[in-house]
Design a protein that fits this description.
Ferritin, single chain, mainly alpha, elongated, 148 residues
Length: 148
């Protein structure tokens, strides 16, 4: 098990954020009109679910049993704002806004001096995947805004 109750509380909060973000991305992918936006949004949903699973595995097994594989290769509180028939650009814009909240939660955990070293390593690995996904969604937003 993790080193202390503080680690568990912090990681459970991140699991909730990542799970909610995954669900928001699934909904956004369903709302998207074209493959150009739907596919990357669905991929982000899978990645966010992988982040949540990574953190859950840490809580179940503890740091000694955690695999050291690259989290991004294991691709399997946030809400997409719904509107009537949103455009792909609007759907992606909502996802980008939600990314900021998720990223801030991970950054707060990494800044937490009370977090144990094994928990911090687990959170950092998940944060790298979150940050990469954030950058890719922002790139998609720019591409949709700037046109084909």
């Amino acid at each position: 098990m993790p080193a202390n109750a503080h680690d568990v509380e912090r990681i459970e909060t991140l699991i909730a954020y990542a799970s909610a973000n995954a669900e928001a991305y699934r909904e956004a992918a369903n709302d998207a009109e074209g493959f150009r936006a739907a596919a990357p949004l669905a991929h982000r949903a899978q990645e966010r679910q992988a982040v949540a699973a990574h953190l859950q595995a840490y809580l179940r097994a503890g740091p000694a049993d955690e695999s050291s594989g690259d989290l991004t290769l294991r691709a399997p509180v946030v809400a997409v704002r719904r509107a009537a028939a949103p455009t792909d650009a609007e759907v992606v814009e909502a996802a980008v806004r939600d990314e900021g909240e998720l990223q801030a939660a991970f950054e707060a955990a990494l800044d937490d001096r009370a977090l144990s070293a094994p928990a911090r390593e687990t959170v950092l690995k998940a944060y790298v995947a979150v940050r990469t996904g954030t950058d890719q969604i922002r790139d998609l937003r720019r591409a949709l805004r700037d046109g084909p």
